[in-house]
Amino acid sequence: MVKIVTNAHQSRTATVWAGTEVEVIEYGELQDVARPIGSQRVSLRAALRETGGRIEARHKPAKPLADGYRGNDHLSLIERGGEAYGHTPFIRGFRCVAIHFDDALLHDACEAADCTDRFHSRLMFENKPIWAIADRLALECVTPRIGQRLCCESLVGMLAVELARLGTRVPPRALKGGLAPFRLRRILEYIETHLGDDIAIAELAALAEVSLPHFMRAFRVSTGQAPLRFIMQRRVVRATALLLDTHVPLIKIAHDCGFADQAHMTTCFRRIASNTPARMRREHA
Predict the structure, then answer these.
(1) Among the three residues 95, 123, 153, which one is the final residue of a domain in this structure?
(2) C or N terminus of the chain, fewer CB within 10 Å?
(3) What 3-state DSSP class applies to 68?
(4) What letter does residue 30 receive in the DSSP assignment?
(5) Residues 158-216 pLDDT 10s
(6) How far apart are alpha carbons 8 and 2 in whole angstroms?
């Protein structure tokens, strides 16, 4: 006999980016249970940690999948209102992330990926890029910090497009053009003016008058870079000028240039400039 449990989680942390809810759920010990995991939105569930057992997704509580992926980084995509259950004979602990997508975002993602917008349930499958994005969103959800919205909205948009590509029914067309010149100019001016602010990708898309997935792809075509990378590079350029031309403390430069803190600025400098702010200032003293 399988016991169906409707509220078995031990703890839950949730937040919303780009209209999409991301929730990280921690379960304690479970035995012979099946928990409903469907929702009124298209949702993705990613197993992050299994301890002392295993949980698998099923269409019916008592009917195992015949050919589900057996790795501990399994994913399950569940259609809107779809019936699905997380089942375990026994597990000591389980951590997962559930991502409930905004309908409009998925529709736009399907247009950007040139595929149909009908999402069907697909349980217990493997996809390393999708799992990696879900894992990163889970980390951001449980460790809130200043300036993370820009990163997380980018991740949500990327994830929506990756899921849309899973259901591609027609051959992809050649990559469409970038943003219209006047829209690109408007976006670039806005970024330069607001580098010290918490810039949101969704706001940039609205400013360009296009959907979020379309904006992310068109911006890359126009500039050769993803929006997040471009903005971080512009912040590094501005911070470099302040480092070399002023005696403003590093912590204030980080704040004025839109970094979460001085450590975040140092990380971005290492990644983009292959140097650190402190070393750069010393070398040009």
Answers:
(1) 153
(2) N
(3) coil
(4) E
(5) 898 888 888 644 343 434 578 998 899 999 999 999 999 999 999 999 999 998 888 98
(6) 14
